[in-house]
Amino acid sequence: MTATAQTTSPTRRSTLSKVGHWAMNNGALVGLILLCIGLFIATPAFLTIPNIINIGIQAAVVAILAFGMTFVIVTAGIDLSVGSVAALGAMVSAYSFASLNLPGILTVVVGLGVGMLAGSISGLAIAYGKLPAFIATLAMMSIARGLTLVVSNGTPIDTSDTVNIFGSRVAGIPVPIFAMVLAGVVCWFILSRTVLGRSMYAVGGNIEAARLSGIPVKRVLVWVYALSGLFAGLAGLVLAGRLRSAGPQAGSGYELDAIAAVVIGGASLAGGSGRATGTLIGAILLAVIRNGLNILNVSSFWQQVVIGCVIALAVGFDVFRRKTDS
Question: What average pLDDT does this structure show over 253-276?
């Protein structure tokens, strides 16, 4: 009997160690599950199909922005312009329809192209102009928001029917959820299945070592911010499609939610780590927190306090995890 206990004890310890390691690497998922259980106990109306779909819609725009932000944070960068770039892409798309009479499908291409162009300019300033990412994207945030106001003259502009599809449903499922899933798959594919994705991790891990190993660091950085802008353009179209118009103040503050979703999802601000699945979980977690607090009639002011605490805990958890791994 003693011998059996002695042989099973190491096995049990090994199992507990594996569970603990999995929980450590999937803290956002564990937190999301526990949060959903807690909210279901507090209010059974939380886990209903209509509310789950509502959470998906709420998470969609932030998740799409966050997928683009994942590329940036993997390379140890930051992009403060994505909210404004999303608004600019949507506004130029709407303007091209309302004033230039472009076909609907072209207005979508224009919106995506404007977002990618804005991101590329930031990337060029960072890679070749040697500007810090914080400064370059802060400048782009101001430029994009200003251009949005110039194009719109401070008033909303109706979007094309093609863009409005982003606010519709297919087989009962909102199109923003489809767009979120598609963006997530593209993000996952780039990070895990392409040379560009592997180069992003290398640049974020050690930029000098990446350069010495032959990786075209400057080109990689331009692509990173161009992709962030492209995803921002898509997020802007989804937001405009839901509202059936492009607003000059759309997307304000969304860049902070995008950064929060990536960090909560397990990416390190120091670079070199980050996953599309983690980012998706982080975006859904933020949406669940807001949705749950709304159902519980918690003030929107306190919601900001809760979100801030969650971000602080996520960053603290990342620091603890890196210290443990080292």
Answer: 90
Q: Which amino acid is located at 313 in the chain?
A: L
pLDDT on residue 269: 86
Give the chain's domain count.
1
- Give the number of other Cβ atoms within 10 Å of residue 171's Cβ: 5
The confidence score (pLDDT) of residue 302 equals 86
Is residue 25 one of the residues assigned to a domain? no
263 Cβ partners below 8 Å, 6+ apart?
Answer: 73, 269, 282, 311, 314, 315, 318
Minimum mean pLDDT among 197-206, 214-223, 295-304: which range?
A: 295-304
Domain ranges, residue 56: 46-325
Residue 177, token pair as written in the block: 């959820």
Q: Which amino acid is at 259?
A: I
| Token output for 315 | 């960053």
Answer yes or no: is pLDDT of 216 > 50. yes
Segment 70-92, tens digit of pLDDT: 999 999 999 999 999 999 999 99
Give the whole-angstrom CA distance, residue 131 versus residue 157. 34
Q: Which residue, chain included where needed, has tokens 């990412």?
A: 133
Instruction: Assess if residue 28 is contained within a domain.
Output: no
- Is residue 8 one of the residues assigned to a domain? no
Q: The domain that contains 269 carries what CATH number?
A: 1.10.3470
Phi first, then psi: what are they for 158, rounded to 5°? -65, 145
172 within some domain? yes
- Sign of the alpha-carbon dihedral angle for 269, 274, 276, 280: negative
Q: What confidence score (pLDDT) does residue 1 get?
A: 47
Block residue for tokens 């090994």:
14
Q: What is the largest CA-CA distance in the chain?
A: 84
**Both tokens of residue 321?**
């995890």
What is the distance between the alpha carbons of residues 271 and 200, in angstroms, rounded to a whole number?
9
C-alpha triplet 177, 181, 187: angle, nearest 5°: 145
pLDDT of 318: 67
Give 220: exposed, middle or buried? Use CB within 10 Å, 0-12, 13-18, 19+.
Answer: buried
